[in-house]
Amino acid sequence: MPKLVEPLTPLDIENAKPRAREYKLSDGGGLYLLVTPSGGKLWRMNYRFDGKRKTLCLKCYPDRSLEEARTIHKEARQLLANAIDPLELHRQLATVEKLERRESQAAQRLAAVRVDIDGVIEIWKGKNAIRLTNDEAIFIKNQLCRLTE
Fold first, then answer.
1. Residues 6+ apart with CB under 8 A from 11
2. Which run of H or E residues covers position 53?
3. Which of 44, 119, 139, 148 is buried most, with the most CB atoms less than 10 Å from its CB?
4. Range of the domain at 91
5. For residues 56 and 88, what is the distance between their CA atoms, to the nearest angstrom?
6. What is the CATH number of the domain that holds 74?
7. What is the overall mean pLDDT for the chain?
């Protein structure tokens, strides 16, 4: 029978001081706060999936509050009840976010060209802009055509 654990309070978390070795402050149900010797306070969740013990990292305190950690813990428990590994889902979401970030960075690297009402051409590359008059743009176009012939 699992032992009953007194839930954490915000005061318990604030009063947690670093020691020579890491230690855990349990909130129950596998959720705990890991206090490191350097003073870091990290949310973790232990669980079993397919007979294996796993640990899900839930960011650090105060970036993630006690209430937020409990909400994520509850959602992870619901995923486990539906036979979905929360750690694997987290990894897949991280991969998707990484790909989206790469795509947006690639789109930002492309130069944007804009033409004003006055005929001034702006070429944007990131935060930098080059302003060309119509005559300058025609000159550059002709030079590029000569190079490619």
1. none
2. strand 52-60
3. 44
4. 10-106
5. 10
6. 3.30.160.390
7. 83
Contacts of 34 (CB under 8 A, 6+ apart): 22, 23, 24, 40, 41, 42, 43, 44
Give the Cα separation of 102 and 104 in Å (integer).
Answer: 5
The neighbour count for residue 58, using CB atoms within 10 Å, is 22
Tell whether 122 and 75 lie within a shared domain.
no
Kindly report whether the global pTM for this prediction surpasses the value 0.70: no
Q: Do 34 and 24 contact (CB within 8 A), yes or no?
A: yes
Q: Are residues 57 and 93 in the same domain?
A: yes
What are 44-60's pLDDT values in tens digits?
A: 999 999 999 999 998 88
- Look at residues 78, 59, 79 and name the one whose alpha carbon lies nearest to residue 69: 59
Q: Please give the C-alpha separations between residue 89 and each of 48, 100, 112, in angstroms, as whole numbers.
A: 15, 17, 36
CA distance 107 to 86: 31
